């Protein structure tokens, strides 16, 4: 069974998110132990299609305190369950749009693209949309695309490229800041919690049309902080596009991600897109199925915005 944790585990997040991290540089091929005190784990009867998740939970209301919801997550039977969750797209999108991306020099691999669902129910309105983009490296293609194609306001974040905070364009603001589970200075980089960043930008009550997180393992820190301390902030997020890092040599990270998948499901977020990394050196086989250390996943709720 999966067990609970306290605040003293913060050092583990750094070890899992940084010391054992593997840089994925995920080019994509289209075709995807610790917990908060209010999450409990137990066995759930299997469905006919042999998924461990059981019946779909009641979608929470926006007027509920998500921090008090009693979520459940099943025991993961094997690695198949982890990857099957990523592969199983539960939410359909009728108007998928690829935003950003570039061809890696000397290859045919498309790198850095993100998938955005433009279905009417998400009400992503050009000129009034807002995107937060965590993780840039040398690729602003997603951010620039959201600006030029949709006239969205974009806040971009990355402390690793050692570039001062500056305005990239009328709509795109770059911040020399990284996302983490605590506000801290680390290796001469400024890191901040998601809630701190929203407060800094005065966006605590703003609707986030697209939350992009591509931070080479620090997605675990994002989840650990937001789900444990400020889950209500997710109410205002329409779509979450995230690069998942799940190396076989870091089983703790995979267990943590599995737990956070359970939280997202409890909060009504469903997998809408999933893409496997095409880089062969990141591939491996599990029970006859080809898997990867890196996946792109997009979650959304079934909601009319």
Describe this structure as you would to a colleague.
- The protein has 305 residues and is an alpha/beta fold.
- Helices cover 20% and strands 26% of the residues.
- The strands form six sheets. An eight-stranded mixed sheet has the order 10-11-9-8-15-16-20-17, sandwiched between helices. Strands 1-6-5 form a three-stranded antiparallel sheet, with no helix packed on it. Strands 12-14-13 form a three-stranded mixed sheet.
- Helix 5 (219-229) links the parallel strand 15 (210-213) and strand 16 (239-245).
- Helix 1 (10-19) packs antiparallel against helix 5 (219-229) and helix 5 crosses helix 6.
- The longest helix has 16 residues, at 251-266.
- The protein starts with 9 loop residues before the first helix and ends with a strand.
- The model is unreliable at 1-23 and 26-48 (pLDDT under 50).
Condensed summary:
The chain has 305 residues and is an alpha/beta fold. The protein is 20% helix and 26% strand. An eight-stranded mixed sheet has the order 10-11-9-8-15-16-20-17, with helices on both faces. A three-stranded antiparallel sheet has the order 1-6-5, with no helix packed on it. A three-stranded mixed sheet has the order 12-14-13.
Which tags fit this structure?
305 residues; alpha/beta; 8-stranded mixed beta sheet; 3-stranded antiparallel beta sheet; 6 helices; 20 strands
Helix and strand layout, with pairings?
Elements: H1 10-19, E1 27-28, E2 39-41, E3 71-73, H2 79-87, E4 96-99, E5 102-103, E6 110-111, E7 114-117, E8 130-134, H3 141-148, E9 153-157, E10 166-167, E11 172-175, E12 178-179, E13 184-186, E14 189-192, H4 194-200, E15 210-213, H5 219-229, E16 239-245, H6 251-266, E17 269-276, E18 283-286, E19 289-292, E20 294-301
Parallel strand pairs: 2-3, 8-9, 8-15, 9-11, 12-14, 15-16
Antiparallel strand pairs: 1-6, 4-7, 5-6, 10-11, 13-14, 16-20, 17-20, 18-19
Helix pairs in contact: 1-5, 5-6
């Amino acid at each position: 069974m999966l067990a609970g944790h306290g605040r003293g585990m913060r050092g583990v997040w750094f070890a899992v998110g940084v010391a054992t991290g593997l840089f994925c540089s995920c080019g994509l091929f289209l075709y995807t132990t610790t917990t908060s005190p209010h999450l409990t784990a137990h066995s759930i009867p299997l469905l006919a299609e042999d998924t461990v998740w059981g019946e779909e939970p009641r979608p929470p209301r926006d007027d509920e305190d998500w921090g008090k919801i009693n979520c459940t997550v099943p025991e993961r039977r094997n690695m198949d369950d982890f990857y099957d969750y990523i592969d199983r797209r539960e939410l359909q999108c009728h108007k998928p749009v690829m935003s950003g991306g570039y061809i890696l020099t000397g290859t045919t691999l498309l790198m850095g693209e993100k998938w955005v669902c433009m279905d009417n129910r998400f009400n992503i309105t050009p000129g009034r949309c807002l995107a937060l983009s965590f993780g840039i490296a040398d690729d602003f293609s997603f951010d620039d695309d959201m600006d030029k194609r949709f006239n969205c306001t974009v806040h971009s974040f990355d402390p690793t490229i050692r570039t001062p905070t500056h305005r990239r364009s009328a709509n795109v603001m770059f911040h020399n800041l990284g996302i983490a589970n605590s506000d801290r200075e680390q290796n001469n980089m400024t890191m901040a919690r998601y809630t701190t960043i929203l407060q800094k930008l005065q966006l605590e009550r703003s609707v986030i049309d697209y939350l992009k997180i591509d931070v080479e393992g620090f997605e675990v820190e994002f989840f650990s902080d937001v789900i444990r301390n400020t889950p209500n902030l997710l109410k205002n997020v329409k779509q979450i596009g995230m690069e998942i890092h799940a190396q076989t040599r870091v089983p703790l990270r995979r267990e943590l991600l599995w737990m956070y998948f359970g939280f997202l499901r409890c909060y009504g977020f469903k997998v809408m897109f999933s893409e496997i990394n095409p880089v062969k050196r990141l591939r491996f086989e599990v029970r006859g199925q080809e898997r990867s250390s890196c996946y792109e996943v997009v979650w959304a709720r079934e909601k009319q915005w």
